[in-house]
TrEMBL record:
Signal peptide boundaries: 1-26
Organismal lineage: Bacteria, Pseudomonadati, Pseudomonadota, Alphaproteobacteria, Sphingomonadales
UniProt protein name: Carboxyl-terminal processing protease
Enzyme class, UniProt record, top EC level: hydrolase
Keyword Iron: no
Top-level taxonomic group: Bacteria
Assigned keywords, A-Z: Hydrolase, Protease, Signal
Start and end residues of each Tail specific protease domain: 275-451
Pfam family, one: Peptidase_S41
EC annotation from Swiss-Prot or TrEMBL: 3.4.21.102
Record-level GO BP terms: proteolysis
GO MF annotation list: serine-type endopeptidase activity
Coiled coil ranges: none
């Protein structure tokens, strides 16, 4: 699974539309509906020359994601399906990193008419069923009228958004905001304002509307927590803050300080007793620009392994390790699972995932210990409401390990992979359709994961110096425990 987090540069150094409010019945989840148990080995959808595997050619409909894929000999066309089926109007290219990703791998089930598709090896299992032909209307030009755009927008939300119960009002209340506002001939500005009214106060950083209106690039996104909005309004903004944090950390770690992974990882030791490891993003550790390709994934994995091998080897014999995810913006879920693999000697279930209306059982994500250097001592995990997405998945995983203590502030509370749903006119809607849960079934969407030891990491009056004071506090806590 991937998240739209790499855009953060971490400074190196017809008549009125009637909006029907209905209830979409959820597909039943049965305990035996675990297709991943019967699926065959992972295979690439296309070879290096772009030719697709004959076994996967044809028309496929997803379970719970609203996609239809028409896979030919040299590629695939993706359609959006709900009450209507359409291929969005062209916009000159993808509008987000999630919008740019396409399935690269598949695992075929024994019947040959069901398959699991994945963006990258080990990512979310999306089940597709083979169908005889494209559904009616898919190949017709998309209806880009305001009525059609608004209808698709509401349909996607009603079918796929998983958290209206945690972010009220529900679908019906929000849809009511649109009633009477959609009409033929309304301008893009008016339509954008109407759709934005539906999203007002949603408080979900993984749900957004992106588009070009009157030549201007626009974005509707809420749920940024308290710390980042405050920082962005301060002098110098986020860039100055991040630069100052990295400079401070390097100074305090002294000669042990290392800035690695394309500026996304800082590590070293404190007083020759405590290891310190901070990750700002779950990925982007190389300069490769072929995002989400197999080559990109291999390179990212290899670079992370190199860094962790060196860091964990240097932490051998120390009293404890501070893993600082208090400024982690998320990214690639494989990174979120590779981190705890360095701190366990036994496999364990980190969390489960379940897609809205997929009809499948929750999928358990297991962490396997790596063969390289690992740390078996106490771990102190620092979090804040900047910690989001992949950073929260790592937090959820670490919370299953008995030697880990979470310190700091609650995480953001936005876990789901953003589901990209282009609208007929080319605007892009992304929304949260997947529920991530702890092995015991607890769901932390919206409220975040609360620490065991509360600690203000980025105080309003000193968001730079306060961070290292918090690190020192945790280091002293670890020393007292060791002594």
């Amino acid at each position: 699974m991937l998240h739209d987090r790499y855009r953060t540069h971490l400074i190196r150094v017809a008549g009125a539309l009637v909006l029907a409010v209905t209830t979409v019945a959820a597909a039943p989840v049965t305990g035996g509906d675990r297709p991943w148990l019967d699926a065959g080995p992972m295979r690439p959808i296309a070879s290096q020359d772009g030719t697709t595997d004959p076994a996967v050619r044809g028309v496929w409909r997803s379970r719970g994601y609203g996609w239809v894929l028409d896979i030919g000999e040299t590629g695939a066309i993706r359609y959006q399906e709900g009450n209507a089926c359409y291929r969005p109007a062209g916009t000159g290219g993808p509008q987000s990193e999630m919008d740019s990703t396409r399935y690269r791998w598949f695992r075929m089930l024994p019947d040959g008419d069901t398959a699991i598709f994945q963006l990258l090896e080990g990512d979310t299992n999306v089940v597709f069923d083979r169908i005889e032909a494209l559904p009616a209307g898919c190949a017709s030009p998309a209806d880009t009228s305001p009525q059609a755009v608004a209808a698709a927008f509401l349909d996607h939300f009603e079918r796929h958004y998983a958290f209206f119960d945690r972010r009220p009002p529900g679908f019906a209340g929000r849809a009511a905001r649109l009633e009477g506002t959609i009409r033929p001939g309304m301008t893009d500005v008016q339509l954008w304002k109407a759709l934005a009214s539906f999203m007002d106060g949603l408080s979900d950083s993984h749900t957004k509307l992106i588009g070009t209106v009157g030549g201007e690039r626009r974005r509707i996104q809420d749920g940024q927590g308290k710390i980042l909005p405050r920082i962005r309004e301060s002098e110098g903004g986020e860039s100055a803050w991040l630069s100052a944090l990295i400079a401070q950390t390097k100074e305090r770690l002294g000669p042990t300080s290392k800035v690695d992974g394309n500026g996304r990882i800082v590590w070293g030791t404190i007083d020759d007793r405590i290891g310190y490891l901070q990750l700002f993003v779950m990925g982007g550790f190389t300069d490769r620009e072929d995002f989400a390709s197999s080559g990109w994934a291999r390179a990212e994995h290899a670079e992370l392994d190199r860094i962790l091998d060196e860091a964990l080897a240097s932490f051998a014999g120390l009293d404890a390790v501070i893993l600082d995810l208090s400024n982690n913006r998320g990214g690639w879920d494989r990174v979120a699972k590779l981190l705890p693999a360095r701190f366990t000697s036994e496999p364990f279930i980190a969390f489960t995932t379940h897609a809205q209306n997929s009809g499948q059982a929750p999928f358990p994500h297991e962490i396997e210990p790596v063969e390289g250097p690992r740390f078996a001592g106490p771990v102190y995990l620092m979090t804040s409401d900047v910690t989001v997405s992949g950073g929260e998945l790592a937090t959820l995983a670490f919370r299953q390990l008995p030697q880990v203590v979470q310190v700091g502030m609650p995480t953001r509370g936005a876990f789901s992979t953003p589901l990209p749903k282009p609208l007929p006119n080319g605007w892009l809607l992304e929304l949260s359709n997947e529920t991530f849960a702890a092995p015991d079934g607890a769901v932390y969407e919206e409220r975040g994961i609360s620490p065991v030891v509360p600690l203000d990491i980025y105080p309003p009056d000193d968001p730079v110096g306060g961070h290292w004071k918090a690190v020192e506090y945790v280091a002293e806590m670890a020393k007292r425990r060791a002594d």
